[in-house]
Amino acid sequence: MKIGIDGRFLHRSESGHGTYSEELIKNLAQIDNENEYVVFTNPSYESPLKQDNFSFVKTDIKHYSLKEQTSLHKILNSYNLDLMHFVHFNKPIFYKKKSIATIHDLTLSYFRTNPFIKQKIYDYMIKKTIKSVDHIITDAEFTKDKITEVYNIDPDIISVIYLGYSDRFRPISNKTLIKSVTSGYNITKPYIVYLGQQRPHKNLARLVRAFSLFRKKGLDYQLVFIGKKNPNYLEMNKEIEATDLKNNIIFTGFVPEDKIPVLISGSKLLVMPSLMEGFGLPVVEGFACHVPVASANTSSLPEVGGKAAAYFDPENVKEMAEVITSAVTDKYIRNKLIDNIDVQLKKFSWHKMAKEIQQVYKKVIQES
Hints:
The protein is 41% helix and 15% strand. It has 368 residues and is α/β, with parallel strands linked by helices. The mean pLDDT is 94.
């Protein structure tokens, strides 16, 4: 079998699509020496993988560009592929050969924050891709159900395949190391951590309000956002300005990959307050560091968190504060959550994901 993979996100290591592409290719190489893989990459990307059945083709065609729709299909057609895997919804509309697409979520369909024209293009492209590919891979049952419901798609052509997590996410117990790293980010008190992007659907303005209620209970903690502050997220920024918490809300800025597990391990709790997630990888990364998680009870998050997370209604600030408080202060609840982590973690592995995707490749190619 000759399989193409859209690897144009590979140069963006900070991107979820970049991580997905990287782990898929790396793990496919570990389990498959027989099939031929052609990976189409950005010109700046240099693959560390040297394996005879993997070749890397550089193309300067950018995602979401007009050229992607008018020219990319010609390049793909020239390689006579048995199957093409698009790791996002932006499949060229003129590509007619067998293909699958990974649809990670439908967040932009529900939280319509794009300018009008850009939103219309997105609506058209994701519908066109979903309707034209031979098979769809998604990260959670929640998204499968939404795709089936919104686009009237046969659920049998959708495979739910969970993501994995990097082995750099592990419990760090070295207190000297933790203190060294946290002090570098002005973290001087016990703290709660949020890991992820800062966008309206992440519900961080309510998290700030819940944190304010949490501190009013006499709990002298800091709230740490891993990553730089998003100046365009006005609701969150106004909420912070309206409180007296400026010294107790930390934005770390860029954090090197090896320090993120240290920051998580040093925290008392990881919080995931999103209104909608296609998967919620930070929940799994928190589990991997053996840190309790408090999560919204929406979308895919209960599926990913299982019994290892405590849940709240993300639109109820008081309830969010109460759940965060109990997950931080109640030893029984904390121990119960931690005891359930290892069982839940077994569901998530990049190696397992690659094996399941390989089986989808085989199935789709064999179908007439």
